[in-house]
UniProtKB/TrEMBL annotation:
Protein name per the record: 2-hydroxyacid dehydrogenase
Family: Belongs to the D-isomer specific 2-hydroxyacid dehydrogenase family.
PANTHER family: 2-HYDROXYACID DEHYDROGENASE HOMOLOG 1-RELATED
PROSITE patterns: D_2_HYDROXYACID_DH_1, D_2_HYDROXYACID_DH_2, D_2_HYDROXYACID_DH_3
Length: 335
């Protein structure tokens, strides 16, 4: 198939080109994001390959269908950026990579926790400046602390295993509890209990209408004083303004974000010579107890190779047999 790849970075080109060879796909690499302004660039292709911040709203999908596009291939797990009912209506199949390396995201999540707790980012800068003073670097033992995991699918399960290795008590919230987490000793409970008893709350659920702003002023009020919140799922699961207020009051002791609800305009780009026009993001960057990474949790060699191979196989399956095991159903209910 002729496939146009939007939001291309050098690493996408490297891994997708290698995976395309055995399948015989023809790839066109484009740097712009897919939006209503760039959608015409898909002309003359049967498939578009997109990432987390490409826009696949109704207007874009209709335009893609008019141009003859039959497949939208997400090179990620989440599909919150696709208007699925419209895709179905215009006959475009949507495929994704449901699992690549849950270890990549879970390990990054643990990295954020360790860095925030033991202030490794601050120690690094301090020691390089010849300052070996320990004041301000005090952390806490993870052993014995309670970790609340919201969403215990593939990533949440690997994360729970890692935290169980540190000797943490595990609380979980998920409509579909899983046996592996229970074997680790996880206690499933409602959100009220999870918020009230967790020292660390980590988000591993998809972004859906039900999880939009799940972390908000009211839920923060029900959390422990000094709670650590980690979000490596999708930005809008957190009401960022509410979290800023929680940090200002001291209610939230640590915040680790790999995603941000307005990330589409900033993440994956080098803006080091520009002024960030987003006041909320700028405010977050001023807190000493906040770490933000730019949606890099997935970014390991193993994950990129698996994403490239699965994405292109998904398209080949649609081309050859008309369906793929990784097709996204027309609603948000599938795990
Ligand atoms: P998964 O589908 O295996 O697991 C998601 C779990 O969330 C499921 O068990 C599901 O039942 C549960 N869930 C659904 N709605 C829920 C709700 N309202 N409350 C609580 N739980 C709910 O997905 P996964 O592979 O573990 O990925 C989880 C999320 O992580 C993805 O949806 C994606 O948004 C995010 N992600 C981020 C990165 C990154 O680089 N930061 C990479 C991959 C995935």
């Amino acid at each position: 198939m002729k496939i146009v790849v939007f939001s291309t970075k050098s690493y996408d080109r490297e891994f997708l080109s290698a995976a395309a060879k055995p399948l015989g796909h023809e790839l066109t690499f484009l740097e712009p994001r897919l939006t209503s302004e760039t959608v015409q660039l898909a002309n003359d292709h049967q498939a578009v390959c997109v990432f987390v911040n490409d826009q696949l709203d109704a207007a874009v999908l209709r335009s893609l269908a008019e141009q003859g596009v039959r497949v939208v291939a997400l090179r990620c797990a989440g599909f919150n950026n696709v208007d699925l009912p419209t895709a179905r209506e215009v006959g475009i199949k949507v495929v994704r990579v449901p699992a690549y390396s849950p270890h990549a995201v879970a390990e990054h999540t643990a990295g954020l926790i360790l860095t925030l707790n033991r202030k490794i980012h601050r120690a690094y800068a301090r020691v390089r400046d010849g300052n070996f003073y320990l004041g301000g670097l005090l952390g806490f033992d993870l052993s014995g602390r309670t970790v609340g995991v919201i969403g215990t699918g593939q990533i949440g399960t690997v994360f729970a295993k890692i935290m169980s290795g540190f000797g943490c008590r595990l609380l979980g919230y998920d409509e579909y509890p899983n046996a592996k987490c229970r074997e680790l000793g996880m206690e499933y409970c409602d959100l009220t209990k999870l918020f009230a008893e967790s020292d660390i709350i980590s988000l591993h659920c998809p972004l859906t209408p039900q999880t939009h702003h799940l972390i908000n002023a009211q839920s923060i009020a029900g959390m422990k004083d000094g709670v650590m919140i980690i979000n490596t799922s999708r930005g809008a699961v957190i009401d960022t303004q509410a979290v800023v207020e929680g940090l200002k009051s001291g209610k939230i002791g640590h915040l680790g974000l790999d995603v941000y609800e307005e990330e589409a305009d900033f993440f994956f780009e080098d803006l080091s010579n520009e002024v960030i026009p987003d006041d909320t993001l700028s405010r977050l960057l001023t807190f000493p107890n906040v770490i933000i990474t730019g949606h890099q949790a997935f970014f390991t060699r193993e994950a990129l190779q698996c994403i490239a191979e699965t994405t292109l196989q998904n398209i080949a399956d649609i081309d050859r047999v008309g369906s793929s095991k990784n097709e996204v159903a027309g609603d948000h209910s599938q795990p």
